[in-house]
Write a structure and sequence with these properties.
With 192 residues, the protein is α/β, with parallel strands linked by helices. The chain is built from four helices and eight strands. Helix 3 packs parallel to helix 4. Pfam families: DUF4136.
Length: 192
């Protein structure tokens, strides 16, 4: 019985932690030599659908300060005049909906009159199928960071961090971690 309880708790923990995680996706120009870039600069952020979330000084500072620290740790130096590579970011928040499911899972009672759902002696557990009972609205945030070769003006790298968000403040506070995760995807000599 204890083993079943541990499995249930572990499954619940895995489900909740997967809902709160950030998903990262990246793409790059396969033939590009990223080792040639020694200096970087910033383009203005691209206007997007997230004015209410990320179009404020705190969000911009969280993104740019963390990105600058990550870029310097990758060996790039900031340059206002003629940088080798230019970066820009695109924040997006989408309104979405998802189905909410009802489950026929329940715990048995204890004792002759039951302590919960059911009659009888001993503990029990039962399950069945689940079915949709409605939908819920939620917001899904994306932060896209792109690198453009200054000479060709072509995007050579792009990465995106995406996550569920319930409140603007939490999304803004989460930005430094998202930016750090995005720059782990940046191609360097050791990372192909």
């Amino acid at each position: 019985m204890k083993k079943l309880g541990y499995i249930f708790a572990l499954s619940l923990f895995a489900l909740l932690s997967s809902c709160a995680s950030v998903q990262y996706n990246t793409t790059k120009m396969q033939t590009q030599d990223f080792g040639q870039y020694k200096t970087y600069g910033w383009l203005p952020p691209v206007d997007s659908l997230s004015k209410n979330y990320f179009n404020n000084d705190i969000a911009k500072a969280n993104i740019l300060n963390t990105a600058n620290r990550e870029l310097e740790s990758l060996g790039l130096t900031y340059s206002k005049d003629n940088p080798d590579v230019l970066f820009r970011y695109v924040p997006i928040v989408n309104n979405k909906s998802r189905l909410v499911y009802h489950s026929n899972v329940g715990w048995g009672g204890m004792g002759p009159w039951g302590w919960g759902m059911g009659w009888g002696w001993g503990m029990g557990w039962g399950g069945g199928y689940s079915y949709p009972v409605g939908s819920e609205k939620f917001r899904y945030a994306h932060l896209i960071i792109e690198a453009l070769d200054r000479r060709t003006n072509a995007v050579v790298w792009q990465a995106r961090g995406s996550f569920d968000t319930k409140a603007p403040e939490r999304a803004i506070n989460k930005l430094p971690n998202v930016v750090t995760g995005i720059f782990k995807e940046y191609p360097t000599k050791g990372r192909r």
